Amino acid sequence: MSTGDFKGKQFKETEVADKVVEQYDLAHARIFYKYVMGGGGMDIHYGAFRSASDGVFESSKETNKRLLTTLDWMRPITEKSLVLDLGSGHGGLSHELIKTYGCKVIGVNISPEQNKMNEEEAKRLGVGDKNEVVLANFNDGLPADWTGKFTHVVSCEVFCHAASKPGLLADLKRCLAPGGALAFTDIMGADGANEKALKDFTDRNATTEMARPSNYRQMLKDVGYREVSFLDMSAHLVLYFDNMVKQINTHKADMMKEGVSEEYLAKWLDSLTQRVDIQREHEVFAWG
Fold this sequence. Notes:
- The chain has 288 residues and is α/β, with parallel strands linked by helices.
- The protein contains ten helices and seven strands.
- It has helices at residues 16-24, 27-36, 56-74, 92-101, 112-125, 165-175, 199-202, 213-223, 237-257, 262-282; strands spanning 82-86, 104-109, 131-135, 150-156, 176-185, 187-189, 285-287.
- Strands 3-2-1-4-5 form a five-stranded parallel beta sheet. Strands 6-7 form a two-stranded antiparallel sheet.
- Helix 9 runs antiparallel to helix 10.
- Residues 1-16 have low confidence and may be disordered.
């Protein structure tokens, strides 16, 4: 069993894909993320809080709402739209897209067991006919015949796992039809933060070097995207990290009954506790 410990490691471009599978796809990891980030739901990403009383489930749903509204503002999503969900995970965002807009979604994800969960949930929700899941490592490049295929691309906290962020952005632009729209969220280092200050995050996550908001704006422009903008939601991070700590403390016994080791939970609890403190005091992480 993996302990989820990448301490002192920043992975090479050739290594990161295997480590992403280790981080998310093993049975205990899927259980952990569903409790601690999903709040029992299918969304395993950071959350935006409408109220301080919201938890990880409610705030993750709010992130979905804001991200999809932004995507729709950029180019209206209709029943005829074909959306690429890059790094689709358990499929929460894909399913919400289909239920809200009636479009078709193709999700690309590297984790076989996550993909199985995605397909099963889509079938349960009655949207399986519009939800396609492709097992692939996007770091190897997306299919050649996807050039100009998609009206929209959406992605939620996935680019941090990219071997080459400029390369990925260029590949996604190739896959977009003329006038297509890309909207994504990602966890980043704050402009001015150094990698040593971000060590708490990289010790728990399969990443290469973390991007900064200014990096992304420049990379997008360099690749040829137009109308580049950034909505800064970094202020939500402390509350979300703190809610992850609460989820571990509340559901520790439940997770252990389902096979998550005490060692794995202890390392995450220590990491997240430090993350709350460092973000509150120094604001080294950015998100948006």
